[in-house]
Input
Amino acid sequence: MKRTAQPHRAPASSAISYTGYRFPPDVITYAVWLYYRFALSLRMVEEVLAARGSELTYETVRRWSVKFGLGIARRVRSTALARDDKWHLDEVVVTINGRKHWLWRAVDQHGAVLDVLVQSRRDRDAARRLMRKLLRKHGRAPRVLITDKLKSYAAANRDLGINVEHRQHKGLNNRAENSHQPTRVREKVMRRFKSARHLQRFASVHDQVANLFMHCRYHTDPRQKRALRTQAFEAWKSVTCAPMPVRLAA
Output
């Protein structure tokens, strides 16, 4: 059954505070949105903001992205619709400072990212940590689990007592494998991630922001696309507690 997007309403108790910052909230959240929504470097975001009349440094953009990114991601997650019960899991290698790390990602059948986890191993323990995190966040096991042929997934399910339909086939897991592509693009733009913590923080925010706007990409009807984009911007306004700036500087 195809789900329809619903308006997001963030709880008032978790409102984000911008007190003490020189720039207004709409400029701050716009910078954060540009950085996580598009394949832009910090310096590129600095130039976009300069073109709109906001003179600041790329270091300021970096600090904003660190300060507000995870809070915004948590609010996006808390206000999202319940995700579907078919989970696609996959892991991809990421080289950080000459060492291999593994970015584990879970998505549902619509492409919405459920969670990500950066780990130094690709084994049974790592798969178990991912599954435990997913169960804790979503409160239930999936109806169907789709992975590649890595045996660690089945071993982790046995350890956790998860008894679900588990399909292990590389060709069935394109949904999860394709979800790694935006991370690869950003890795190139950012000239590699600096640490495992940096990758975990970035992917956690980037994927939730992408979830918020994912419905804007897959509809060809212009009116429907504009309506979904407007709805996504309203959701962004709700979770960030700030409007999206609409005017270019004169």
Notes: Confidence is low (pLDDT under 50) at residues 1-13. Residues 16-79+211-240 form one domain. The two ends are 47 Å apart (CA to CA). Strands lie at 86-96, 99-108, 113-119, 144-147, 165-168.
